[in-house]
Amino acid sequence: INVLKGEMAVVGPRPLPMDEAKTDTKLQRLRMTVKPGLTCLWQVSGRTEIPYEEWLQLDVFYIRNQSLRLDLEIVLRTIPAVLSMRGAY
Description:
This protein has 89 residues and is mainly alpha-helical. The chain has one domain (9-84). Helix content is 49%, strand content 7%. The protein is built from five helices and two strands. Strands 1-2 form a two-stranded parallel sheet. The protein is globular, with a radius of gyration of 13 Å.
């Protein structure tokens, strides 16, 4: 529903946990320049197996390299990533 309302994108940085969202860093501000997404590079790259700083770097890579091709690649990688449950809580 949030995607339909325009509040979120299909692909984009995942919303941060509340304790992390409270910190104000250059990377955090950069992440706030785009809409949060339902899926992202972090989700298809191992999720919780990835350290927080690497998560932010994946978001920065996405923000700086946004394209339809990258979005399609992430969407196509999302289904196997979710089904494998790799890095899931």
